[in-house]
Amino acid sequence: MKPEIIIDSNEFSDLAGFAEHFSNVGLMGQHRWNGNLDAFNDILRGGFGTPEAGFTIVWRNHKKSRRDLAQAFDTLLDIIRVHGPGGEEAGDQIDLRLE
Fold it and tell me: Which of 40, 56, 64, 85 is deepest in the core (most CB within 10 A)?
């Protein structure tokens, strides 16, 4: 079973808050993400303390993020899906579960 990153939309309301929350979930070690979307893509490729065999992002209360983050939410999902099943970089083995 892959490690899970739990993203809880009740913990943030904008992209900067999401970046801080994502940085604090424990898979990135000492690395911090500042909210740059190109950097998020790089993080999902690995090498920043993320598990080499991939992981699952569990996005709880995702409907709140859809409202709060607007277009940024869709962009984040697109980036995540590139690294998951059927994506161009599927070898990174990032799964996404929206709750």
Answer: 40
Domain count, the chain: 1
Mean pLDDT of the region 12-28: 87
Tokens representing 30? 């000492």
CATH code: domain of residue 79: 3.30.370.10
- 21-69 residue pLDDT tens: 998 886 666 677 889 999 999 888 887 667 778 899 999 999 999 999 9
* Whether the Cβ atoms of residue 10 and residue 64 lie closer than 8 Å to each other: yes
> In terms of residue numbers, what domain contains 31?
4-98
How far is Cα 76 from Cα 78, in angstroms, rounded to an integer?
5
Alpha-carbon distances of 70 from 7, 19, 53, 63, rounded to whole Å: 17, 15, 31, 10
- Separation between Cα atoms, residue 86 and residue 13, nearest integer Å: 30
- The span from the CA of 56 to the CA of 20, in Å, is 18
